[in-house]
Amino acid sequence: MSQPPYFVGIDVGGQTIKGGVVDDLGHALSSVSVPTEAAKGQEHGLGQMCEAVRRAVATSGLRLDDIAAIGVATPGTMDIPAGIILDPPNLRPWKNVPVRQHIADTFGKPTAFQNDANAAAFGEYWVGAGREAKSMVLFTLGTGIGCGIIIHDQVLEGQHSHGAEVGHIIVEATNGRMCGCGQPGHLEAYASATAVVKRTREALEQPGLTSCLSEVLKVQGDLTARDVFDAARDGDSLAQRIVEETAYYLAVGAVCMMHTIDPDMVVFGGGMIAAGEEFLDRIRHHIRRMAFPVPAERTAVCYAKLGTDAGFIGAAACARQLYQRLAAAK
Amino acid sequence: MSQPPYFVGIDVGGQTIKGGVVDDLGHALSSVSVPTEAAKGQEHGLGQMCEAVRRAVATSGLRLDDIAAIGVATPGTMDIPAGIILDPPNLRPWKNVPVRQHIADTFGKPTAFQNDANAAAFGEYWVGAGREAKSMVLFTLGTGIGCGIIIHDQVLEGQHSHGAEVGHIIVEATNGRMCGCGQPGHLEAYASATAVVKRTREALEQPGLTSCLSEVLKVQGDLTARDVFDAARDGDSLAQRIVEETAYYLAVGAVCMMHTIDPDMVVFGGGMIAAGEEFLDRIRHHIRRMAFPVPAERTAVCYAKLGTDAGFIGAAACARQLYQRLAAAK
């Protein structure tokens, strides 16, 4: 191949498969979406993944022959070295799906397989917020808290494909809030977007409290984390308290990683970063206050840059790493 | 060098420098001790380190010419890549001590430099409890909680030499006990040997409690963690509660690492492991209950095997790794 290599990355989510062709410098030449339709079963799902690969290539203006390798990122649970999705809560009723083999066989290309949160971190590390970092921890704040850890160009996968499940570290060992996973005290139970809403609704149920969010809840029938951050910006004191506590817990998570991984950079991504610089400054304030002096001073704390493209770009980064390894082994 | 290489490891502690010659398979040919005498200043301390190296070699029956490389482990704070101790609380009044350069210049040997807790973990990983592991987290339970993390033969040093400071992850984000480092809620404040004694003494001050430890305290004027574990074994209910809580908090720390590093093996070392298998089983019980199913089932949880030799053997392991890298680069 005399031209520089191109890679396809796809990011399989509960609702949508995002994909694109990415060049050797990390520029996306295309960005496509295909519905996952998980409920139709895993055979159908594998077909949709292949469709995403084909559309990503077609939209980029390249041909399949131009593609050096493919990367696939999926939610867990999974066996990363085996290339298999095991029993994914977000892709029911799938079980033991041999993703990597299927994609490799279908397209005849070297295929990399990675956890979606890890892939997003690898994408940000490659061409996003972490471009200058040597090691990085990414927290993706959404329904849950996804996490990916990159140390010197390597994704921390863990020995049982459970590396970087940092939403599920225990930050309140006594009387902890229940996490979606069924265990108490996890970071995710305090600081995900879902947790922000849940904590707000509980606070609103306490007698004697006044908050503009009561009215929002009445009118909309529900609340979003966005509503809470907006109300805080408008001066609502209950919302401000919730936002401040959320910043504190995210700082707790960051400090735990700074005292374990000690990365160059801690990055926050996901929908909740729409809360803006002021929120990030509150997180930074608590980190500086709580971390050891040297990491407190030197660890960069910032927002992610690739938005929802991080997953497929990171999947492409995994494909690129595989391609480079195969080339080096020749 | 036609014979297999030998390495010297030394482990610099607040009171004592331990050292020994270690062969290529991790067997210690000698084990010596030299007083650190930190208060006499860092020049003197560097001299004591050199003395430890010389005695280790002399006692082994080898000559200095037989030594391929030297490894030095010290407490932090430190700059590991630079080979410098910065501002060590346990080695006052030392400041900015160029340890690696001094040892390398004195003996004319390649010299590796590592944090003492990291070195202990690397020793256990090489020829101790973690011999079969591919990745390992070691908690050393003493005055504080030291920690070292090894992933695929690499010590996790961190970007600012603060990797694996897991005694200082936050496990009680609300109303946490104060840690020796001055921050609240750290694992070390709940589960070090010192914390066991402190929590027991506080409990004994509560009115209406009866415990055989009140008498022990009166007679001895002080308590040790050993006293508490002994009393628990003898059926003292207050001591049993403290031991059970300690096992719980150590499990919390282990689970946080299993959901971050996801190692093959979690190892507990330090004086407190004299508490025996029953204590380890309590830790395992809480880990299995709290960790995700796959790591809960597959992660080995055990006691360290090298005792207080782990540090110098691990320092020798660092020397060996350096020697192998230099050989590979030739």
Please outline what is shown here:
The structure is a homodimer of 330-residue chains. The two termini of chain A are 15 Å apart.
Describe the structure.
The structure is a homodimer of 330-residue chains. The first copy, chain A, has 330 residues and is an alpha/beta fold. Chain A folds into 2 domains: 6-123 and 308-329, 2-Layer Sandwich (Nucleotidyltransferase, domain 5), CATH 3.30.420; 134-304, ATPase, nucleotide binding domain (Nucleotidyltransferase, domain 5), CATH 3.30.420.40. Helix content of chain A is 41%, strand content 18%. Chain A is built from 11 helices and 12 strands. Chain A has helices at residues 42-60, 99-107, 116-127, 188-191, 193-204, 212-220, 225-233, 237-258, 277-290, 293-298, 310-329; strands spanning 6-12, 16-23, 32-35, 67-74, 78-79, 84-85, 111-115, 135-141, 145-151, 154-155, 265-269, 300-303. In chain A, the strands form 3 sheets. In chain A, strands 3-2-1-4-7 form a 5-stranded mixed beta sheet. Chain A has a 5-stranded mixed beta sheet with strand order 10-9-8-11-12, with helices on both faces. In chain A, β2 (16-23) and β3 form a beta hairpin. In chain A, α7 packs across α8 (237-258). The model of chain A has no long low-confidence stretch (mean pLDDT 97). Chains A and B meet through α8 and α10 of A and α8 and α10 of B.
